């Protein structure tokens, strides 16, 4: 079916139940069915894939890369470079879900990020995203949006349920070390792990401090995923704790000073509740 204005759906309200909101806050993540329809995914996925091919800088053979490099092709902030990708990243439907799950009055863009796990791509180690973000509170959430159906063989995202409250491992970058140390600690905490596949149109949302990982892609097809990172619209920049946070400050929050609300041209408000 050819996508038309009537079949593409980025801005209508996706109704959340109170049970879903409560579960997200308790578990640190949620997977929601039928957030986007097939026509919407096909239309925007084609452009996102085109931009990944155009902007990807990785040219090393897979076997010569680090664990991080084997995990995925990573292309960030596509939206300023493509009007079509911007339409997708600025979806009010997705931004409102993030707002309602966190219970904020609105959300800003932190940045978008395509994560394409190549055929034969390696595992993604356990980690928390907010290790990389110099932000003043925990009201951050990533929408993880598969652009195709993801069976277990393609390496869908896995979540440690309820792990957003664990302090151990928050200071570890994505690496073999983070995989080994966090995996050991999570086993000691005996928290369950959600290792399920993703249906087409299913989208997950997870807190910045929820531990997650992904298995390898053992298929002959790329695992195509787009992510959008949201933050509380009133969140502030804090003193960076590591070099990665300094890099994020310079890259994603240009001109913002420590103690100020993160309100740069790269951090527009994507959804705000009416007063």
Automatic annotation (TrEMBL):
Cofactor annotation: Fe(2+)
Recorded coiled-coil stretches: none
GO molecular function: 2-oxoglutarate-dependent dioxygenase activity; iron ion binding
Xref: Gene3D superfamilies: q2cbj1_9rhob like domain
Keywords (A to Z) from UniProt: Dioxygenase, Oxidoreductase
InterPro entries: Phytyl_CoA_dOase-like
Highest taxon in the source lineage: Bacteria
Annotated PANTHER family: ECTOINE DIOXYGENASE (PTHR20883:SF48), PHYTANOYL-COA DIOXYGENASE DOMAIN CONTAINING 1 (PTHR20883)
Protein name per Swiss-Prot or TrEMBL: Phytanoyl-CoA dioxygenase family protein
């Amino acid at each position: 079916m050819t996508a038309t204005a009537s079949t593409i759906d980025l801005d209508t309200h996706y109704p959340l139940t109170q049970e879903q909101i409560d579960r997200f806050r308790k578990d640190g993540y949620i997977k929601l069915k039928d957030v986007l329809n097939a026509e919407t995914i096909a239309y925007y996925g084609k452009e996102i894939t085109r931009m990944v091919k155009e902007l990807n800088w990785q040219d090393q053979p897979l076997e010569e890369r680090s664990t991080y490099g084997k995990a995925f092709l990573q292309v960030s902030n596509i939206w300023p470079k493509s009007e079509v990708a911007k339409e997708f990243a600025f979806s009010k439907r997705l931004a409102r879900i993030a707002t309602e799950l966190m219970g904020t009055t609105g959300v800003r863009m932190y940045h978008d990020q395509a994560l394409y796990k190549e055929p034969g791509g390696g595992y993604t180690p356990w980690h928390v995203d907010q290790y990389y973000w110099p932000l003043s509170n925990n009201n951050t959430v990533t929408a993880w949006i598969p652009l195709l159906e993801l069976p277990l063989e393609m390496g869908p995202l896995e979540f440690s349920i309820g792990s957003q409250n664990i302090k151990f491992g928050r200071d570890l970058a994505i690496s073999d070390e983070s995989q080994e140390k966090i995996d050991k600690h999570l086993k000691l905490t005996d928290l369950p792990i959600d290792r399920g596949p993703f249906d087409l149109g299913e989208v997950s949302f997870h807190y910045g401090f929820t531990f997650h990982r992904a298995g390898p892609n053992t298929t002959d097809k790329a695992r195509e995923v787009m992510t959008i990172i949201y933050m509380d619209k009133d969140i502030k920049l804090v003193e960076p704790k590591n070099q990665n946070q300094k890099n994020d400050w310079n890259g994603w929050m240009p001109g913002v000073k420590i103690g100020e609300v993160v309100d740069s041209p790269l951090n527009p408000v994507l959804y705000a509740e009416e007063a």
